[in-house]
Give the backbone structure.
Amino acid sequence: MKDPFSHLIIGKAMHVHRELGPGLDEHFYHALLTEKLREADVAFESKPRRNLMHRGLLADTLEPDLVFPSRLVAELKALHGDFAPEHYVQLNCYLKLWGLAAGLLFDFAKNSLLFRRVNFTAPTTVSLPLPTWTEQLQSLPLSATTRAVAEALGRAVNTVLTAHGLGYRDTTYRGLLTADLQADRILCRTSPVAPIRASSRLLGEAACACLVVQEAIGVLVLALRDSLTATDRATLQTYLRLLNLPLGVVVNFGKTGFMHRWVTPPGANLCLP
């Protein structure tokens, strides 16, 4: 690493770790690090909040630990284990929204301070080939209403891809899709709640991690995956069964491209590509 500014921030973080030691809550490390940065006259923003807007509606709010304007983002952790993929995804989201090329992940919970530098390259802008989206539905005996909702959903996905590209986390894309549909006055429920039954006995209720569009289509929104899996399909099938929906689609705003797969409820005996 040949970035003197990154070395400076890492050095301050090391001083904090030596002074406090491991085993404390994250906010203690954050408080002392910001104090040392002020003493060194380093310009930074502590836990700045920035809203991601889409078509005039709020899609998501992001809040990194430290932003060094025009330089980098730093995220502080006190972890029981190692850095996990979601930590890198989180930092990449911050870098994308703040328009910065580099970030630092710190873990203060170990005997020695651990850190990782993350370099962010904006993904290539992509758009959804709408004919491919709709032609996969042609062989299905869908109602005119369900087919119209599927086409409207395709337009919303395409608008989000064109406006924001790839690189955000799944919760952000759920917010972006919801905002786009709401802007067109299309009903979209997030995290719908369904009763869970077994042997005709009510076990309770659970929130399904999907969107429900016009009470017709369930949407499982994923991001930064390399591929769609059988588990993704089975998960959405569970949601379709619980919510009594005739059709669903798994969408993945992936690392290098967009992919999707239409899903029908279990036992529907319909063939999908």
